[in-house]
Amino acid sequence: MEYDVGKLLRVLKLSAQIILENGGETYRAEETIDFICKSFNVQEVESIATPTGIYISVSIQGNDNNTLVKRISKRTINLQKIHSVNNISRLLSLHSITLDEALRELEHIKNNNEKDKYSLLYVGLSSAFFTVLFGGGLLEFFTGLFAGILVGIISESFTNLHSYHFFSNTVSGAVIAFLAIAVTTLTKTGNYNPIIVGCMMPLLPGLAMTNAIRDTMRGDLISGMARTTEVLLVAASLAAGAGVVLYLAYTVNILS
Amino acid sequence: MLKIILDLFYCFIATLFFALIMNAPKKTILHSSLFAAVGYLIYINLSDFVSPTLGFFSGTAFIAMMGEISARKFKMPATIFIFPAVIPIVPGFGLYETMLAIVQNNIFLALEIGTNTILNIAAMAMAMALVSILAGKIKYRKTKMF
């Protein structure tokens, strides 16, 4: 079977890149590369995926090597894209689509960034129901809803900023804590704790936390360390934002 | 009893919207929300009556198991199911209380709660790793048999 090595490398690069940029695990990226290469009878393939970049080296007959390096700078979470890439690698390995078709599909997946028009509302409702789950009442529900929508607006408008994770989480934490304390102090009822925790739940790097430990246990030390650092950064910036507001509230004796 | 049913309902809805934020494929959303609710039920009961760490472990193990089963059924990566479903169990309250204790200048309390929280997160990771290893084994055997 004849095929272009450059095209194969581009397909490998795009699929690994989409997986890593949208919250997939590093081993999934490596396994996808191996999976596709196996179905194309590639003799030697080595890949190293870390959360910040991929290195792929492919040798088809076993003599000349083709290497590709790709830097990953932006990481969000989009499960639909992971599913689509998984689907394409499956089809590709069954040879039901050609490399050209796969390349076109992958480009389409990569550039398809349309958002659900209600996504702000989803953040708000998710926060609000987490607030109620942690023991809030009706007042807490609506404060959580409002704070959640604000957080959605903040993280959307900060997307293109340098050091995005740090700034958006610090500001979000501060806004959540401020709203929660302001509403509960002004109305003199309710509890601010469930609001703060409930609104922070969607922002917490929940799976990244467990993935960091799991990667380390698997022996993927570099991605384990990288994920741990990312988790610490997000959690610390959230805590810093909320902590500053809480600290101020304690010092001016709004809270006791 | 009513409180448990209400909690299940809240957990279901919260996970549903969280899955929508994370752009989960439409046909997986109801499944992962259901797993989240049942996993949360296991977690809350065990941590109230037995021990919190066991609660975190069992709740996550259940969700991971259901995730692996549905991954085989739908031919999708297991993460798509596990990621939204595990969110209600993540010890957000523990992390928040640690931060609160630091703000209140109570370092010993912060250490105590913080260590507990990290242990609980480790228990969750252990559960997930264990289930994914077992799932891999089962898949291997099946391909060998046929």
SSE map:
The complex is a heterodimer of chains A (256) and B (146).
Chain A (H helix, E strand, L loop, with lengths): L4 H17 L4 H14 L4 E7 L2 E7 L6 E6 L7 H15 L5 H13 L7 H15 L4 H20 L6 H24 L4 H9 L5 H13 L2 H31 L5
Antiparallel strand pairs in A: 1-2, 2-3
Chain B lengths: L1 H20 L4 H24 L2 H23 L4 H8 L5 H12 L3 H39 L1
Helix pairs in contact in B: 1-2, 2-3, 2-4, 3-4, 3-6, 5-6
Your description of this structure?
The complex is a heterodimer of chains A (256) and B (146). With 256 residues, chain A is mainly alpha-helical. Chain A has two domains: 5-111, no CATH class; 119-251, no CATH class. Chain A has ten helices and three strands; from the N terminus they run ααβββαααααααα. Chain A has helices at 5-21, 26-39, 79-93, 99-111, 119-133, 138-157, 164-187, 192-200, 206-218, 221-251; strands at 44-50, 53-59, 66-71. In chain A, helix 5 (119-133) packs across helix 8, helix 6 runs antiparallel to helix 7 (164-187) and helix 6 runs parallel beside helix 8 (192-200). The relative contact order of chain A is 0.10. The mean pLDDT of chain A is 87. With 146 residues, chain B is mostly helical. Chain B contains six helices and no strands. In chain B, helix 1 crosses helix 2 and helix 3 (52-74) runs parallel beside helix 6 (107-145). The model of chain B has no long low-confidence stretch (mean pLDDT 88). At the A-B interface, helix 3, helix 5, helix 8, helix 9 and helix 10 of A face helix 1, helix 4, helix 5 and helix 6 of B.
